[in-house]
Amino acid sequence: MSKDNKSKTNLPANNPKGQSVLLQGEMSSATIYSGPLPDPETLRQYDAVHSGAAERIIAMAEDQAMHRQKIEQIVVSAHSRNSLLGVIFAFVISLCTIIGGVYVAVNASAIAGTFFSGFGLAGLVGTFIYGTSFNNKNDVNKNKQAGEGD
């Protein structure tokens, strides 16, 4: 929101011949407001134009804030759920790979079974390391945004 004020001014000035001349110019100023609500003066003006308008504007801002907070809660809980499911599924897949490798090692080829189990174990360790590293990076970013980091 902004308010513009324009005014014309007449300024005396001297020209090179020493004669006085009258210069005309235009001056402009602007006031800018940011945030969910206009300034109190603007709210009073809205209320003067339409009774109860200021109250409706404040109610709209409150509703928007509640809506935004609900969306943030949904996003945070979905992210937590997805992270947990990712870890669970990675564990199950790695465990199945390790068990399959042991089965192949016992019944068919020890070398093939060892590779199979090794890949399963590497996937399990990799998931753990990646998850820990990802969480640490998120914690650092959150601290920086909150002003607690470097």
Total helical elements: 3
Estimated share of beta-strand residues: 15-25%
The beta-strand count equals 2
pLDDT averaged residue by residue = 78
Structural class: alpha+beta
Low-confidence stretches: none
Taking the sheet with the most strands, its summary is: 2 strands, antiparallel
What would you report as the Rg, rounded to the nearest angstrom? Answer: 34 Å
N-to-C series of helices and strands: EEHHH
Strand arrangement, largest sheet? 1-2
Number of domains: 1
Oligomer designation: single chain
Distance between the termini: 35 Å
Form type: elongated
In helices, the fraction of residues equals: 55-70%
Walk me through the topology.
Elements: E1 2-14, E2 20-32, H1 40-49, H2 53-107, H3 110-146
Helix pairs in contact: 1-2, 2-3
Question: Outline of this structure?
Answer:
The chain is of the alpha+beta class and 150 residues long. The protein has helices spanning 40-49, 53-107, 110-146; strands at residues 2-14, 20-32. The mean pLDDT is 78.
Key features of this structure:
150 residues, alpha+beta, two-stranded antiparallel sheet, 68% helix, elongated
Explain what the structure shows.
This protein is of the alpha+beta class and 150 residues long. It has one domain (2-13, 21-145). The protein has helices spanning 40-49, 53-107, 110-146; strands at residues 2-14, 20-32. A two-stranded antiparallel ribbon has the order 1-2. A hairpin with a 5-residue loop joins strand 1 and strand 2 (20-32). The longest helix has 55 residues, at 53-107. The chain is elongated and about 105 Å long. The model has no long low-confidence stretch (mean pLDDT 78).
